[in-house]
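Deliverable D4.2, example record:
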Amino acid sequence: MTQVKKLGPGLALCLALAVPSWLLGRAFPIVGGPVFAILTGMVAALFCRGHAGTQAGVAYTSKKVLQYAVILLGFGLNLSQIAQVGAASLPIIVSTISTSLIVSFLLCRLMGMPAKISTLIGVGSSICGGSAIAATAPVIQADDEEIAQSISVIFLFNIIAALVFPALGGALGLSNEGFGLFAGTAVNDTSSVTATAAAWDGMHPGANTLDQATIVKLTRTLAIIPITLVLAVVQTAQARRSGGSRESTFSLKKVFPFFILFFVLASVITTAATALGASPALFQPFKELSKFFIIMAMAAIGLNTDLVKLIRTGGKPIFMGLCCWIAIASVSLGMQHLLGIW
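Output generated by the structure prediction step:
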């Protein structure tokens, strides 16, 4: 009961902001609920920042609810379907992810950017936008402003991709298969992949690139697992080096992303149940709840974000996002050309 009193007001505030953001995200999928939630949270923060009654619940939502969202995300992954259709795209996926991480690492060093923001932008650009940032942030212990900055950058280039890529694909003479791979590997967030592929299908009746682009995107999502585990190992090594004489008291449990193991378990359950004849619709509520939890967590992050500071410090992250975005798109197209798809 004490815990409910402590967390309740903050959770209720995040829920109140999440519901209209979710509805707006459904009405305008090219923007998405998480972006509306962050913006709504930042505006609300101007009126209720630092309110003692809501702080605990807001902090819980931005950390724990975000992890629950990632776990539920696993129910949207059918591993057998990904193995059948998505495996063909693996060379392109591996190339684009590696490119984004390398570009973000190099720019981090060259521009003197904070390492956590650089990591979040690199991972968000290369894997699956907000979901990858949601999974990575707890592992590297990123704060709410760093998460908000990264999500904002990803959102900007999602919008540009959804508007520009269908026309670009047509100008380059991409086949339907080629554009499905391009959208699935070069667009950051799932909702934006859907919007981009749907726009192509609208321009090319009967193309049906949406299904292929979505499966390629889900295959990319699996990269959350190795990336977060590697980051956990790096975080562990750094903590031990900086711990000095306290090394023996360091706990791996504090940085290891155990919620990722539940994410994998959820994927295995979905795959096994579907193989035994269960309808994919059975897991749809879990997928929708995952999306809503991410929106709730983004509202909490917006509440903890200084809007003025975010705008003032946004130049370098936006430039990094631009470089990652261009590099990923170029490598995706280049790999298709090398593999004879385009």
